[in-house]
Amino acid sequence: MRDSARWRALLSASWLGLLLTVAGIATPAAFTTLPTADAGRVAASVLAAEAYASLAIGALLALLERAHSRRVAAAGDGTQFGSGLLLALGALFCTVAGYFGVLPLMADARSGRGPFSFGQLHAASTAFYAVKVVLVAMLAWRSTRGASSSG
User: Fold this and answer.
1) Rounded to an integer, what distance in angstroms lies between the CA atom of residue 140 and that of residue 57?
2) Among 49, 70, 89, 133, which is 20 to 30 Å from 56 by CA?
3) End-to-end CA, the chain
4) What distance in Å separates the CA atoms of residue 151 and residue 6, rounded to the nearest whole number?
5) DSSP secondary structure string for all residues of 134-145
6) What is the pLDDT of residues 16-56, one digit of tens each?
7) Residues 95 and 150 sit within 8 Å (Cβ to Cβ)
8) C-alpha–C-alpha distance, residues 16 and 128, integer Å
9) Which residue, 58, 149, 141, is CA-closest to 98?
């Protein structure tokens, strides 16, 4: 059980670090050093890698959190759908909605097609990313708190 808590803490903290690095370093650096079109392509590549990594890490964390919730429920201390599981699933939803839902619409918006402007879609994508960061930060805080108290 202690190993599970450590893995949950390690994965959630690493995921948070990835998200903050992408948002705070990788994408801004592209836009400060490259022409806008090139920076957009670099940012798109970085965000694609982050989205697929988030899917993998989020799915693994959801499985770990589900197992943890089951153990807690079996001990009579909670439900099978604990807050850690809900946080992981919420972050996964934000990844799917923000990257796989909103991003494909941005190409049409750039060319003037579609019901939304590029700015509106960029704002929606950014909002999903920001909510994902908050959810993963809450998951990391919750997981590291649990890992330190079980050790």
Assistant:
1) 13
2) 70
3) 10
4) 9
5) HHHHHHHHHHHH
6) 999 999 999 999 999 999 999 999 999 999 999 999 999 99
7) no
8) 15
9) 58
Q: Does residue 53 contact residue 23 with C-beta atoms inside 8 Å? A: no
Six-digit token pair at 140?
């990391």
CA distance 73 to 141: 21
Cα–Cα dist 63/30, whole Å? 35
Residue with tokens 């807690």: 72
Amino acid at 30: A
- Burial-class residue 14 by CB neighbours within 10 Å (0-12, 13-18, 19+): middle
pTM (two decimals): 0.89
Specify the amino acid at residue 109: A
Read off the DSSP letter of residue 100: I
**Total domains in the fold of the chain:** 1
